[in-house]
Amino acid sequence: xxxxxxxxxRIDDLPDRNERRDSLDQRLPQMIREMGYMPLPVxxxxxxxxxxxxxxxxxxxxxxxxxxxxxxxxxxxxxxxEQNILSWAIERKTPVLGICRGMQMIAVxxxxxxxxxxxxxxxxxxxxxxxxxxxxxxxxxxxxxxxPSFEALAFSEDGEIEAIEHKSLPLKGWMWHPEREERYLEQxxxxxxxxxxxxxxxxxx
Length: 205
Hints:
Layout: E1 4-8, E2 10-14, E3 19-23, H1 27-34, E4 38-42, H2 49-58, E5 61-66, H3 76-92, E6 96-99, H4 101-109, E7 114-116, E8 121-126, E9 128-129, E10 134-138, E11 141-143, E12 150-155, E13 161-166, E14 171-174, H5 190-204
Parallel strand pairs: 1-4, 1-5, 5-6, 6-14
Antiparallel strand pairs: 2-3, 7-11, 8-10, 9-12, 12-13, 13-14
Helix pairs in contact: 2-3
């Protein structure tokens, strides 16, 4: 059976249609498929902890991506759904990659606050640290401090934490969007390589 990776979705309000939609950039599931896995979008109606757990367990989810979009606190049902997912994943040591807001959600889950930042929307940053490359940036907030039991993998030029990883659990966060890079599906793309290595390593563990 193909390994299933759940991907959380942003919420878009369409008042002219009287609709509130869950949505996901198609490029992110494409990256998951390129790694040989099956992407499954998570509906933002799983704010009850029991509903979240039932959904994840019934579908035999083996990995999770917390996607970007929306600020934390903007939509309570998405916040609660992702908090439940994180709690479930931490209990079972299921790998979680947080992208942009997803990294913020991981940090907040571990007690870290967020702070507003400037110059991080529609910009590019040269990262330094364990990860050294130029990446995109689309966020108004950054994490205030490094969460406990995590290490910082990358910093932007202005000193903001851009990537984190838990020291013992399979939890990782990136503040950039790998799906928004021009070469997002190319096999020599370092983001794709690192995503595949992260999920493959946990599968073999």
